[in-house]
Specification:
Blueprint (H helix, E strand, L loop, with lengths): L1 H12 L14 H8 L9 E4 L1 H4 L1 H4 L11 E10 L2 E4 L8 H10 L17 H9 L4 E5 L26 E8 L4 H15 L2 H9 L9 H22 L5
Antiparallel strand pairs: 1-5, 2-5, 3-4
Length: 238
């Protein structure tokens, strides 16, 4: 996603936009680098929601403050997590899976893509087509636009359940509102291009059209959401 945006912004701005990978620390290394940069719009961060919503609750110390050190600019895309089971498991619905887990505690094994990551449509659909997996439900608040026939977990037996994952563009703190609006508008144009729409379709991404203010509210809500969940299970990464 970052490279798609960088390529099109290079063309629109008439100057190179370079993607500089800074892996490590569950995206904390990249976030710290941007947080310490000048607020001139020349250094930006592309990162998933966990960078600003889950990390503050998972780590005792972070080298950046997700609220004070970063400026939310635009959400680039959203993915819909899904609940996936082995097709040999004798359940067809979420309620049946829950009932089985309660009836036989400790008998079911669970696998994940890693701490803080999800199974989602672009990573699962090909396995579903070959019969190697079965998708029981979508995990978002609403049904996935790409799979409207797939019920949500809330609809399927767990009222109030909802979680999504998104990737977004941030800048350092104290960016001028005019600069934020300019970058937001230019990136929004990139996301509407046919090439971007095709990238979204192939990877099962969804477009999220939020203003910077609405994006800030999304972070606030998700920070509280993940904080409550992480506290409930006592998860820590350090």
């Amino acid at each position: 996603m970052a490279r798609i945006v960088a390529q099109r912004l290079t063309e629109a701005w008439g100057q190179p936009v370079v993607v500089d990978n800074r892996p490590g620390g569950n995206y904390a290394v990249g976030a710290q680098a941007v947080a310490k940069s000048a607020p001139d719009g020349l250094t930006l961060l592309v990162a998933p929601d966990s960078t600003v919503t889950a990390n503050p609750h998972l780590f005792s110390k972070l080298p950046y403050d997700p609220v004070k050190d970063l400026t939310p600019i635009i959400v680039l895309c959203r993915i819909t997590p899904v609940l996936v089971i082995n097709p040999t498991l004798a359940v067809q619905r979420v309620r049946e899976l829950i009932a089985l887990a309660k009836a036989k505690p400790g008998s079911l094994n669970y696998g994940s893509y890693g701490i803080g990551t999800y199974a989602h449509l672009s990573s699962i659909e090909e396995h579903e087509k070959t019969g190697k997996t079965r998708i029981l439900a979508a995990a978002g608040e609403k049904r996935a636009a790409l799979r409207p026939e797939l019920t949500t977990i809330a609809e399927a037996g767990v009222p109030g359940f909802s979680t999504t994952a998104w990737f977004a563009l941030f800048g350092p703190a104290n960016m001028a509102s005019e600069l934020v609006a300019k970058i937001h508008a230019d990136v929004a144009k990139v996301l509407e291009l046919p090439q971007s729409r095709e990238f979204f379709r192939v990877n099962s991404f969804e477009r999220v059209d939020l203003t910077p203010a609405q994006f800030s509210k999304l972070i606030e809500d998700d920070l509280a959401h993940w904080g409550a969940l992480i506290k409930a299970v006592g998860a820590k990464l350090d």
